[in-house]
Amino acid sequence: MCTRCLEMSRRSLLVGGGVAAAALHTGAAQARIRPSDMSPLIGPGFRPTDADEQGLWKEMERVEEEISGSNLLITDPNITGYLRNLIGDVGGPAAKDFRIYLARIPEFNAMMFPTGFAVVFSGLLLRMRNEAQLAGVIAHESGHFLRRHMIRSWRDQRRKTDIFAIGSMLAGVGGAAGGVYLGDYVRLAELGTILSLFKYSREMEAEADAMGAKLIAEAGYAPVEMANIWQQLIGEERASAAYRGKRRDRGYSLFATHPAPESRMADLRADAAEVTIPGKAYDNHRARYLATIGPIRQMLLDDQVKLNDPGASQYLIETLALDGWNGLLRFYEGEVWRLRYRTAKGDDTRAAQSYAAAVLYPDAPADAWRWHGIFLLKQGRAAEAKAAFSKYLMMAPNAPDAAWVRQTIG
Amino acid sequence: MRLLEESSMRKWVPAFALAASVALSACVQTRQYADVQFTVPQGNYKLLVLRPDVTVGSLTTGGMVEPRADWTEQARANIVAALRAQQASRGGNVTIIEHRNELPGVPAQELADVERLNFAVDQAIVQHKYLGDYLPTKRGRGLDWTLGQDAVRLGQKTGYDYALFLHAEDQVASTGRVALGIIGLAGCFVGFCAPNIGGAEQLDYASLVDLKTGEVVWFNVVSAASQVPGIKFGELRTPQGAAQMVERLLGRMRPGAEVRRAQGAR
Question: Alpha carbon of B132 to those of A353, B128, B141, B167: distances in Å?
């Protein structure tokens, strides 16, 4: 159709490459956002006054009604009350306006909605090793609200798509009038617009991290714990990929909505150093944290091992065991390998060993005895198996398989 | 002479194309399905309308939809008024609830469950009746979906005959979008004809559930869109636009196939 197209597109690609390289460069060299520069942009009892923000809030009414009534929520008043207190401590000026919901989803995530309600996934409670870490994540989410990120991103998107639409229309009309084809440049501008939207999103995340570090330090939590979260996540992702024979996606991408974990960790370490006041006592409240989530920890572990992601599950269990092994952790370690069960890789032996270790602890769940018994049977150690099954029946006399177990042991 | 003819032809082609595109650019489509046994509710029936789901937004210059709280409120009020007027004219007794806790004797959670179930069923209807994934097992069987016992229980508890679920979303082209369309129109004279960048758009659907049997007995979708921003076809923000929408969506209910056949035979 046109012979110059090839030449045009090559030239565009070169320019495009230049733009991408420049974007990558600025992305890498982007200065850390300092916690001291982060002050809340709203006060207590904030209500939107602009039409676009009011529209956003209106849309969220039904979203919150749907989420707050969802049957995925964990509604144990001890734990939800605990989360409410936490956001009350690290929520800055909006502390009293926040709502926080806990959803039973075994993933590392939490999110803040434009009207100030947060959803925390149960997978987060499994991973956090102390209250300071959980407070850090909640403070990060509060930071999104306090810095008005939702409406700012929306306006950024609106502005950039407006400019792109006007620009491409003018390029089309102007180009046609002047007899030049500018379509390739329009495509290039489209890419530029998209990249710029992602970059803005990463900046918002970096702001929320800095704001979060400041908030938890003010509340007396050790701010370095926020960086530790990322260190742990990197380890988990690496272990998960390694067991699947893959390499971890490091998250450095022009199309990423969040900065890569490595850069977040590095920035958060620097933030922590900046907000730490020498001589002030910081705490991580590990004991209080463990006591609160204790009653649901078994459920959290259960949900995690059923994801059938042995690399991640084993890493998590070992990480939690840094604070001391117990029967529950050993039992779920056994579950990880029993659920995968590649005998060629020795999963059966690993599972048997973990169950055997689990029952040595007083807090081993009944199922640990049951599986310990089954593996003993497989090894032909019938007398020991019988003892294990008896213990199982004693702990769980009404288990669904109790009759079968009774028959087995005779 | 010949040369002149050709050049004048060339001038006219875009103009024809433009005329055709403007004519086609605002179109309203409706398509309804009914249970084969469906008879249009008449006389003294009790209808429950659950939380009409209305959103009105502004279409930005760049093509994003910005929700607007004031327009949404206005549209909801207009639709509710139009719905009451329409149902009253048919003899129906209508209750419209805005929140899940407004129905006496029914816990909010129970109502939420019915609503969520209906949402899932509606999605299946749209998938298999409108979007092309037709199911051979449901061919010639009209609308063959049910909410089951949950809906029957709701009917028994409340005494309503039917439940109506209604969804309406409307986007109004902003001044910037209209201006962009005008530049596109101006471009037609230099050979870059792009007035049809997309303008106002409306999508409405409704499903009627028989609370005695639990079955979804009637479903209708109205979609209206104008390719050229600035061309309107009834905005939900205005009482007239809302009344027109309610009429398009619910005004011309047709009975099910078997009922029509029986009427024809008589």
Answer: 55, 6, 16, 21
